[in-house]
Amino acid sequence: MGVLKGTTAIVTGSNRGIGLGIARAFAREGAQLVLAARDAALLDSVAVDLRELGCEVEIVPTDVTVEAAADELIERSIDRFGNLDVLVNNAGTGTRAPITDMDLGTWQTTIATNLTGPFLCARAALRVMRQAKRGRIINVASISSQRVRPESAAYSASKFGLWGLTQVIALEGREYGVSCSCLNPGNTLVDSDVSTARQDASGKYFGRVGWDGVEEPLMTVDELAAAAVTMAAMPDHVNMLEATVLPVGQPYIGRG
Fold it and tell me: Is residue 20 part of a domain?
């Protein structure tokens, strides 16, 4: 316990799902948190729960696709805590549609949220971190940044782009002591899965149906968040550049 004690971390998209799981795991490890998402009321509710864990929390309602909002997020974090150790770019969106049926608005919204948003937040954070000569940026991508599925053009393109952005940030940040990592989750039990998921006798979750119509296993957000904690807790001179975390039984290698 306490491997992140004294650390200031921003988690975007932290009002539900994976972002909430990461924020909760960071709080348990002693981090002070800045929670960012568009839904202010839900952020307030999350903040109450995390404060019960003894965590200092600042909430900043943020649309990460807006340049001024991303800049303000970093500024508010510094104003409250005086430093920024970790930025977790988690806010994201995704829809499924064949390329021939995908409208331009869906494509643009997905790219804006999943790729432009992380760029804007990372740019603002990097400007602060390079002055401090330390810091860590963790981009939450997907196994779709490595292996794609049908009907995922916008989502997969955004996540491939995020993996590329991660590497550029890592290169440009290293002379300032700033690292950048990419966390690639597989099937994760989030809010939208709760009503349909089932749990077997061993405690494992199933329920998400793949593109081929076959039921697939799920891991919990807490299980995934353990990897984010490991990334964030690395010594300043060490970087876990990439981590892929997925249920053992999930189709991945050779999928398509």
Answer: yes
User: Catalytic residues, which ones?
Assistant: 155
With respect to residue 193, please indicate whether it lies within any of the assigned structural domains.
no
Q: What is the pLDDT confidence band of residue 249, given thresholds at 50, 70 and 90?
A: confident
Domain for residue 199, yes or no? no
Question: Is residue 1's pLDDT more than 70?
Answer: no
With vertex at residue 207, the alpha carbon angle to CA 201 and CA 213, rounded to the nearest 5 degrees, is: 130
Structural domain range at position 120? 8-188+221-245
Tell me how many domains the chain contains.
Answer: 1
Least confident stretch, 41-45, 89-93, 217-221, 252-256: 252-256
Look up the CATH number of the domain holding residue 43. Answer: 3.40.50.720
Domain-embedded: residue 174? yes
